[in-house]
Each structure stands twice: as C-alpha cells, then as structure tokens.
C-alpha cells in the first residue's frame, strides 16, 4: 500500500486536465467517497492521479502566498495560511474520512488502538508523579490518572510540578516495572485487538505526505534569516501562530492511537516521498523557491549540505577524515567561522589566544563533520530542523513527542535528534530565550535517552558519545580565557570564564544533563570507559574547569565590585564535571572493571601533568591566590578511592612518582589553608563572596564532590610521602612556622599577630581531620551514612526533609544510596528518636523532629565529623552546647566538657602509611613546643590549640607501632647531643625523652637574652627561667627562632633530595638539625641566638599541665597505683567524657599502658613533688591584672544576679498578664491575681491605674483620663454559628456545595428585613440586634496608660521609620509593656468604688416602686455625671473612641435603616456592640456558663469601660417616652391607642422584640453607675416578656389537638392562688387569646407535616421553655458579672437554668429545691399577668389579620445556636488538591495560577488573580471583607499553606497538613502524601474564635489589596 502511495505521489506529474468549476463546488464528502472508491480498485492509477491533482490545488502553498506577495518584496516573507487554510483543513478531514463523518472516522480508528503505552505529553507546570519503587530509570514519571489507577500503596513516591515538561511512562517496561502499570496499560493487548482494515487508513496514506510537505513549505517560507544576529522573535511567533491549526490537526491525529501513529511514522520516515516532493526539481517554481530558502537557512546556520559543492569548498575531502589539518581548520571559514565570529571579538581582543584556542581544539576533536554537516533525507529530519530553527515551539515539541509510543518512530526520531545535536547546541547558544529552550530540549531528550536499549543502539550506530563530548567541548570553547593561576605571564592554560552568559545562565545545562543521563546506562558508560580517544577528549574538557574563578587576596583596600561568578563556577563544576564522574563511578563497582579505572587514572594523570606544565608549576604555589576548582584532582582521587574500595586494585600500581605526588598535594592543601585564612578574616577585603565560596565548598550538595576528594587526595599523598616533609609543608602553608618556637616572643614575617592564633588552630584542626577521617579509607557505605547522620543530628534536631537535604547524597541517582531508601530509614531509626510535632501555647508550631538517642551522644558524637560538615562555625558550638547539656542532664559530667575522643574504624591496609605522620619527629617537636608554650602561658594560644594537641598525641598513642621490645636498647647511641630533639620517631618512646636545652633565635629585646650565661647553666629547673621573665609587657610582641627555621630548611632540602635522588632512597629519614642556620627571607635582622634550659619531656609537661588545669599542686596521682585492674581493662567509662583534666589523665594512662618505661617515668615525675607552677613573685603590674580579673569576676556575678532577678520578674509578669495562650476552654477557674481594673473589691478607695508609659499610678480623672489598651476588630464569627453541632465539610466534588442559609447571620438578616417590610422603621431598629456579621469586638491586654502619654507614644512611633507589620497612621501600635497589638485606647470612667457599694446594697422597695424609678431615671435627659457642656478631656476621648468603634467595621454592617444616617441607626449600632462582646465572651466560655468563675476572658475584659462609653452616647438619643418599650412592658394601655395610626406602619408588637436587645437598651438608657436593685427590676420585667414569648412559640409549634387539650386543662386552674406562676394556666390563656386572631388558622395538611410529631409531655415542655430562656439568662448573668463584679457560680449543665436565675434574683429566696424545678416559679409579674398578656396578644392578632404566615414565622425564633466551627477538612490532602488545582475560576473560567479556598465558608477564590479584581481589590481581600468582615482564612491549594488576612495585613499561618514525618511541605516541593493534623487545625480554629490572630502570629506584612 505504501508503495502505491509512493508511486502516486512520485515523479513530476503530467499536467492534469482541469476539473470543471462544478467539481470544486461539489460536496466535499461526495468527492472524498468517489476518490476512496477509485483508490480501492486494484488498478488505482487514475484515482491516485485525481487525488494528487486535488491535493495540489487544495494544499498548494502558492495561493496564500500570492496574497502576501507584496510583503515578499519588502523582505517580510512570512506569508502564512489565511482563510484558504481553514478550507484546506476541512478538505483534509473529509478526505481522510473517505466521505464519512470525521468524528465517526476518529472513533473508528481509536477502536484499533493497542494502547500499551500511555505516552501522554505534558508541558511545564503540569502536576505529575514519580514512584521510585516502580521506576527503573530515575527520570520515570506518571500522569495523575495513571498514577491513581495503579497501585502504589506503601511505595516511595512523590508528586511534583514538571519544570520542563515530560511524558507519562505507564506501560513502558524499559523505564518502569510492570507492577506499577495502571489498569488501562497492564494488558499486553496486541493479541486481542483486531487487525486494521485496509481501507480505513488508505486515504490517510495518500493525503498526509502532501499535508506535511505543505507544512514544511510554510515553515521554509516563514523563516527569514535575522539580519544582525538578532532573531526577530516577532516574525517567528507570527508564523507559528498562523500554523497553529495545522500543527493542532497533526497533534489530534497522533491522539487517535496506534493505528494512525504507524501511518504517520511511515509518512515521516519514508525517504522516497521526501525526495520526490522536496528536491525542488521540476517545473514547479514555488517548490523551487522553497528549496532555495531551505538551502539558505542551512547555510546561514553554519551548516553545509553535502551535495552543495560550492559552499563547502576545500573542506570536502576531509569531511570523513578523523582529524583536520591545522591549516585546514584555520582556513575553514565555512565551518565554524560564521558561528564563532561574533564570539571572537568579545573575548579580550587577543587574537593570539583565539588562534591557540582553535589549534588546541582541532588536535583533540574527533570529527569535524559532527559539527557542521547535515543532510536531510526524510520529512521527520527536516521537521526537526525547523523545530530547532524556530527554537522549539511548544506545539511542535508536543506533536513530535506524542508520536513516541510508536517504536519504529522512536528509533528514527532518536537518530534524527542525535544527528541534529550540534545544531541544537548552536541554536541554544544564540537564543535569547535560552531558559525556555533548554526546558523544551530536555523535555524531548529525557524521553529518548532514559531508555537504555535505545541509548545503546544510538551509541553504536550514530556515535552518540563522540557527538555529545565534541559538542560540549565546542560549546565551552567559546568562552575560554587565559588562566592567571601561578604564572600569570607565561601560563598556557585556558579556563572557562565564569562571567560569560553561557555559564552564568547555565545554558550548558541541557547538554550536560543528557550526557549524565546516557552515562547512567551501563552499556553506554562501558563504551565510554573503553574508548581511549574519548577519555582524552573528556579530560581535555574537564581541564577547562581546572583552576577557574581564581581568587586573589586583596591586601590594600576593599574590592570595589563583588562579583557573584562563584555561583556559576560551583554549579559548572558540579554539573559538568562531578555528576558525569559519579555516573562513571557507579559502573566501576566490581573487580572486572579494573581496566576502566586504570584508563581514567592514566589519562587523568596525563591531563594533570599537562596542567602543571601549562601553568609552569615547580614547587611553591603562588601566594595569596586560591581556586576552589580542581576537577582533575577530584577525578583522580575518586577513581583511586573506588579502585581500592571496590575493585581490589593495588594502590601503588596507580600512583605516580614522589615528585608528582608532591605537586598533587599542593593545591588541595592550599585550599585547606585558605579556608582557615578566610575564617580568620584575612580575606575580608574580598567581600562577602569569598566567605560564600568557603561555605559552598563544604555545603552538603558539594562536599562529596569537593572537600571530601581533596582531603582523601591529601591523605593518599601523606601516606606515601616523607612524613617530616608533609608536616612541615602543612605548617608552612598555614603560615605559622614562626610561631612554633620555645621563645616567648617571635617575629612572623608572613602573618599578622591577630591572625596567628586562628591559623594555628586551623592547621592543627586540619591535621586532626586528615588523620581521623575515614570516609574513603575503609568505612562502608552504611557506616558513612550513619556518621553523616549523627553529625547533622548533633548540630541541631532536624526534620526528616532537612536531614535528607543536609546529608551528602551520592549525586548520581543510580548509586543506590537514595535518601528515603531502606538503609536511610533504618539508620535513622537506629540513631534518632522522633519528636512528634508540638504546639507551644504561643502558637509557634514545631514540626516533627528527629533528635539523637542518648547512646549516640554517649558513644558516637564525633566532633571531627561535625567540624568537617559545618557550613557555619556556630553549628560546631551548637553541637558542643547540646553535648554539654546531655552530659549535665545524665549526670555524666557537670562542667564544660571538651570534645570527646572517638575511636576510629580501622584503616584500609593500603593507607597504613598515613599513620607515619603521627610518628615523625617534626610533629613531635611541634607538639612538645606547643605544650611548653601553653604551660608557660605564651600569647596566642587557646584552649582549642591544647585540645587539638592532646587529640593528636592520643591519636599517636592509639596508632603506635609495637616497638616496645627494643626500647631499652635504643637509648644509647651517638644521638644524645642536645640539638637533636628526639632519638627515634616513635611517639611512645619520644614522650619520655627529656629535652634539656634548646637553642632559639629571639629578638634582642626578648627576656631570654637579658640573662647572662652562668645563671642559665646553674639554673636547675624552670623556676629561674620563669622568674627571669620580668618585663611582662614584652609578652605581646613577636619574634622568631632557630629551631623553626630548621623546619623550613628541612622541607626544602627534602624536596631537592627527592627530585635529585632516585625515589627509593627518598624514604630514608633525615633528622632535623636544630642548629642549622637558615634564615627566612626578609626576616627581621636583629635576631640573636639564646639557649634555653628546658629539662622537660612530653610526659612531664602533661603532668604539669594537669596541675595547671586543676589549679592544685600534685593533683595528678597515677591511678594504677591504687587499682592495678586499670592496666588490664583500660576502657573505663569515667574517662570518656570530661574536660582537659580528663583528657590528660586518659593520655597518661594510655602512655603507661603502651610501655613499662613510660609507666615508671610517670611515677617518678609524680614522686618528685615539683611545685606545678613555680611560686613567682607577683609584680605590681601582675597584681593589677589580677585585681582586674577579680573585679571582672565580681561584675559578672552581679550581672548574673541582676539578670536572674529580671528573669523572675519577667516570669511573674508573664504569668499575670500574658495568658492569651491559656486557651479559652480552660475548665478551672483562674486563681491569678485579678487585674487592677476590676472594681469589685469593697474598698473605699478610688480605682487606681498604673500608666505603663510614665509609670505613675493614680485614678482616672476628667482632665487626665487613663485608658485601657484595646484592639478593636470587626468580627463575623458570631454570624457563622449554625444550629447543628457537626461542622460542614469542605466540598471536594462538584455535587457538594455549602449554602449559608442556615447561618446565624442569614437568619437574623431575614428577620430584620421581614420586620422592616411590615412595621415602622424606627421601631424595627429597636426590636433586634445587629453585629452578627461585622460586629465590633473589643479586647484588651489589661494594661492602662494616660491618654496624653499614649498620644506622645504614637508621635514617637510615627517618627520611627523602621516599623514593620503595622500602620501607625491607622492608629495601630503595640502595647508598650507586653507588645500586644492594639489600635485604640478605651477611657476609664472616673469614679470611686465607694459608690459601687452603695449601689449594691439591696433595698426593700417593692417591684412597683422600682419600676417607677426606672422610668423616671430613663426620662431624665443626659443625667450623667460628666456634663457635655464643659467638654472635658474625658468626654472628648469618649467621643473619639466611639468614632474608632464605628470606623472599625464597614458601613454596610452599621446602616440598616431605610432612611440613611437616622439616629436610630447609631442607637442600634451602639447597643449591638455591647451585645456582640457579650455573645463572643459566651462563646469563648464554651457557649454556656457552667464553668463559672472569672475565666481568663473575664479577667482581661473591658466590658465595664465599654459600657460607660456606650451609655454616655446612648443617652444623647432620648427615646420619645411614648415609644419607650418600658411602658408597654409595665403598664396596661387603653385599647384605643392602636387605632390612631392605621394609615402609617404600626410599631413592632412587643412579642416580636428581641428580649436581650431590650435588656441592653434599658440598661444603657439608665444613668451610670447603675443600682443593683434597678438592674434586677429590669431583668424581672423582661423575663416575664421572654416567658410569654416562649409560651407563644410553644403554642405555635404544636398541633391543633394538643392546643385544645391544653386550653382546657389550664382554664380549669385559672383561679387558683399561684395561677400566674403556672405555665399550664398561662399557656392555656395564651392559646385562647391568640385563637381570637387568625394565627392558628389555615393549617392545611402540609403544615402538619412541618410540625414535629412529638408528643409533648410536661417534661419536654418544661425543657423547651427553659432552653428558650437560657440564652437570655446567660447574657444577663455575664452582664451582671461585669457591671457589679459578682462571681459566676459553677454548676452542672442540667441545673444551669436554676443556678443562673437564682443568681440574678429571679428566684424567690423561700423557693425550695425538693420538688422538680419549674421555670414558671421565676416569674414576677409587674401588673396582673392575664391583662398584660391579653394586651400583647391583641397586637399579634391585629397583625395576623393580614399576614398570618409572616406573623407565625416571626414568632418562632431559633435561639439555640451551636458554637461556630471552621469547615471540616478531609484526611488526605490529595483529595483537596486533585479537585481544586484544576477547578476553574467562576469569573474568568480559567484555571487560576494560585487557587485558594476559604476555610470559613468554602468559597473558591483566586489569590492575586487579576481576572477577579474589583476596584483595585483582589478576590481574597474582597472575600475576607464580605465573609469575615476583614478576617479571612484561606488554604492555598498549590502550597498547602494557610494564609490569614486581617484588615490591611496578612500573614502565613503555616500548614495543617503534615507528612508522615510530621513536617509541612510548603509549596508541595517534596510532594509526599500529606495528612490532616487535627491538633493544628484545632489551634487555628481556636485563634479564629478567640480573635487572637494578631497577638499570636508575629510575621505580618501589608497586602496592599493584592491578594
């Protein structure tokens, strides 16, 4: 079939007879059907030709271009498809379907899809999954659908956001294990899919070649070579836009499944088709023109088309040869000339360098043709060419990738991709959008190269490795500069320039990542390691990075511009050198691979030798230079390590000669010394970046590719070189040679005095690390992992993810140690305990942490490892502090311990030589000198130095060779003269060797010189020497010595010897001679030689040190004299932890154990009872310093005492004041001291307040009022109460929705609007409360201040610019004492407690009298102690705070009246503020008052002050006495009053009034302070009304029969004595009264259904009545508690009603509790009950005449609201994520970038979404105002984090979803499964309900309405 198609397309066609015009107009479907029939015949020549002609005409590229012809003239070219294109597409669809419907055709083709692979292609930002358990390749990924359809329970998987795009691997067994396939792709379905019928796809085989050719023509036409090397991206994107429909059409075809893909593969790879259609021969001018454009494009890309002789000129013959002649190369302008010409000039203008660069390259490049010969043989190849040319448009990439499930295509495409690899690199380098382009390249390459089989095939058939290495080499070529390392003038070495865009922007990344990817396949890596040519080229590549980013130390002034190139340098070494290295190493694991290692090591050494030659290196590194980049050294080191560890290679067989080893060690050692210099601040003039480099070098991602190989290489060198040479080199590199003198003063020619100490510490620490680190010297992988983990955990407790982050993983993913793998988890559980996430009361949330087990601290804490791994020096201190704390806690050691000495794992035999360092005289001299200096208190020595010295001695004792046998014999011999220090090189023996005299060189001014020689000879001990050191002042000066010069001399001499002699003699030890008279160059001339008498050995120095450290004479007593056991079993726990004294004892014990002689000598020294430090005369100067010390000590103690006192004060303050944190649900009454504000104490004094600013105490007066610090905030928490206890669930499907109909706020809104429809507005506004939404909540921290002090405090805040987090202009501030957030001050009402007591005395007046008094008092306008006429400060403040309260909430939450701005509105708002605060306090107490007590909320409550402010303002609005509800409550009216106002709306009937609102109105209308009996009177009157309302509601609730029954039973008892206190009588009366109206009528059948069919018993009726009245009683009791300071009694829930009513004085005192409690007994009617009830009922009746339905609805009030809750969240975060992250925004119907969900009401919002912005407010801010009156709690779906918006500020709260290790995953970076943490959610809800977000969360910032 394909052949027929080819024939049909083939050859220049004979001119076709024109189809008649009607033919065009013919129905497309008919034509298609006709053609299909014609083609189905056996002889289909005619049909083929006819189709050909049709396609020619329909798809001709001429027509659209003709329209754009004028554009062509102007060079615009890009004639893209126009309207004709739509037509053409329609034609194609019709033809493919062969006359049928296109949709049906698609469906038919899909039926034949053997869907074995998923292959879904995605672009950047798509959410995909990776399962390490199922993956074979580390790059494996799955789409969400396949992942959820497969079974991955218990696997190690994570979700991730794709960076570059990718494709789903489900079904591909090369990349993942079959067990992980999803249900769809598990079936190997090729067997049961029927064969594709021949005619189904026949048309496609004819049509598609033309279609694709047409597309290619457009791409050719559209492309114009950019004029000045600036691709005109606009033009390109325009062409692509026009081609969008075509490419989408192809993409849709690929989605039809396997059958269509195989047709497409045929078309794309068929070379004949391509040749025929595109050769540009034949008469067709259009095709010719297009072919020319194609050739031009090729040429301008620096590529050649092999047939095109003219272009290629001289290069033709050498195209196939392996290397080019140098001349040919230089002359080949046609090759790289064009590409690189632009790069050439901007090097540094030195043409010579450019030439050399080229020459160097040509000799190593394998094959020039790789770079610039391209020949296209099929559509696929040219399509890819244009894809690259157009810089990888997303649509094209997706189309090419969608085809990959077709195996044949995959191979063809991979080969094509490799063929274009060099071209891709060139395009990438030129691109301006290199980031996007890199991502797209990797998107493709990762799909191709992750497959081992394919990678191997391409490597064998297309030289993939050669191509990659060459392309990388070429790429780096363009940015080389001359290296300035070592010899600046003559250096021949070139390095990459890290400042170039190529490195700075990481442009090389895609190519390197491909290279790493293919090296992960064993078959490919082996090819690489076997190919010597490739290895040479690769080492050449690596050497470009050797010594890059050189740092030169600034010695004079600070560097002007700190370059940040070091980021680029470290990234480049890690990615381009280290990662390929790890890839190769992972294949060198077994013995059989020895050959590979030998190859690498060999070429590595060659490259290193070339490098040393190129930089002219002899033996001394250039001073003040350091580069951190030595990739060649590191390759060498890592392959050595691998060879010994895994391949059992003999180390010496791969080591070079001694001279090379000496060179090798220099640069890594230079880095170690420079690290010490940087930490000693010697590089401070180079700026911060040099510190950055030092930190990056040891940082966890880099350390195992940088510092670890360096140290290992130094260990190898040390183990093979002469130890004396090595040690002296170290001290010389660290510049501390001059310090190592016995003299008390010296001169250091290379180091400033202030750096000496830290450099000496650095040198010793380095030696300790060098000698104790075993990472590459014999530790197994698990031991390494364990050591790393312990080191990290000792520094700090860590979360699981930060452990994974900090532990250096092997950068190559296939290495086996993957964090999260089995070994990681098992080691972790062995060394650490998990601390579950906890909540501190302050709201700061801890994550789940791992902390070291006790035995780890005890036995495994390794300070050396910690020092090696710390990026910040403070971490070492942190580890030591934690260690100290552990020892104290476990009673192991009370003082300040020294770092413990840890036993090391045994050395691998190959590295035994390393221990010779510990047994060389040079080191012993240094140790002896340092011990002596420390004992003599020379300057510049620290405890750290002593610690390291002892550590080295101990290491030496642990690793000593057993030479005890002949130790006695070796004493004699000619070497006993005093200038040779030690007889042998064994530390054990040298420790006891006494040194009598030392010749030193000192400055003439030194104290040693002042002595005449007789004194020196006679002096027998150290005493005379010390007493002679009179001039104490000189101690601080510097000078130098003879013995040290010997060190330097020794090193030089050794070096010469080794170079001159043959290496076998080099191992003979040459003794350092102290007397050698070398002088350091440039040293100060006035040195003189002095001889010091010492007479000490290391042992005696140690014992004296023990005395010195302990501060006692003869403190050391050999322990074995008492307990001989010690020598037999030396491992004694008492010595394992402790300070210096312990360390000295441990060392002496070990020394005694190692030799009998040492033991004897120690005993002798101890017997001599030498005074530890000679008693020297204290001079005046010393006395001064001693006094100073003492004074300091005392000062320190005083300071400690003060601090302790301060701390205890602070603590008690915290306890009394700061208990926001004690959550409000505490059950026990608080016993804390009540705040000063409570005015309850019956004292006669005035209330006294402390001002926290000026500190004065005093009463609040009218002219200098005091105020409470308060925070006013609008709150809608109350409005969120619902009537059921179960919180609503967050919707996670389309069906679940939350409707706010049943919230408290909605119900109250409906009620108010109902009232306003039928009744007079002003009366409605008195009948309800508002503030359920947007009510103002007032809270205080309880601190007071003078209002004038506060004003000046605010001024100072305003002038202080560094404020963050709050806005002073809005009146915000923090309390000056406790720093709690606040925004206003509430004035305290002046008044003495005295009157309070008077008011509280109970009076014996009757209820009737009290009622009259209340009425009179309410009628007195403004009867208030503060008269407004005098405008005092107090009244001004009261007004201003009232303004603040009003401005706290939005206008819509204040104005409910129909006439805007009416005073009734303010009146309503004011008493509602009181209501809001009371209701919220009730909620904070858990919704009832059972717990009683003055709970925390009460203690810091400001209701009393708030009431005064509100009352003052309420009394300005006197209610017209006719309308005062008090009248209606307490008097019977004449019945005719109602008739007068028929024409206007009536008043609200009293039974519709909200009783709690009435209470607040009545109380706030009274003059303050209120008398207790008046209060009780008001409560009694209102309770009667409330009870009546309860009865009415009950009567409406029950059905007709119940009603009539009750009516009768009650009527019988009406005349009994306590009829007014029997609910049955009252109920029957209410029913009979209301029956007169229409309230009970119209009860149809449906009504009965609504009413609950409960049979009402007397108990259930009683309960209903009590529940109806309880909310009122609770609020009233709270009010009484605040106004009169009476405590609330606690009680059981069932007795709450009776307790509260007796507390309020409703229950008569004689009431007995024997018989069951009846609520009606609380009633106390002001007027005869039946009369007043009749009057109230008549109002209802007159209303229900007209509106029975509404009348009834208004009577049934729902008063039992449950506590507010946030929405209930699902257990697993994935449920939320999967639903919401793809959900579209309701406004713009796009998927938002940052979706968020409101946790209060479940609304879906766009965070920062511009689409939903309204008047500059983004959606979240807007929603927070509508839903929470300014408080919003949002869950950010893509980040799993909760964000809080509070007014104009916002903060990140944290996450309530944690992973299995108890930590958050912000931004879902790790993508592990997350589960709800109920405790955290509880805390969040608690902060929302208690309005404490502002106090508890600290990090607030302004959101500028942009969220």
Describe this structure in words.
The chain is 50% helix and 6% strand. It is flat. The two termini are 62 Å apart. It has 79 helices and 28 strands. The N terminus is likely disordered. The chain has a 6-stranded antiparallel β-sheet with strand order 22-21-23-24-25-28. Strands 3-2-4 form a 3-stranded antiparallel β-sheet. It has a 3-stranded antiparallel β-sheet with strand order 17-16-20.
The gyration radius over C-alpha positions equals: 46 Å
Instruction: Please report the number of helical segments.
Output: 79
Q: Biggest β-sheet, characterized?
A: 6 strands, antiparallel
Total beta strand runs:
28
| β-strand amount | 5-15%
Classify the helix fraction into a percent range.
40-55%
| Multimerization state | single chain
Low-confidence stretches: 1-25, 62-81, 307-366, 813-817, 963-979, 1010-1045, 1062-1085, 1171-1179, 1216-1244, 1392-1399, 1422-1429, 1536-1542, ...
Cα(first) to Cα(last) distance is 62 Å
Strands ordered across the widest β-sheet? 22-21-23-24-25-28
Mean of residue pLDDT?
78
Shape descriptor: flat
**Helix/sheet category:** alpha+beta
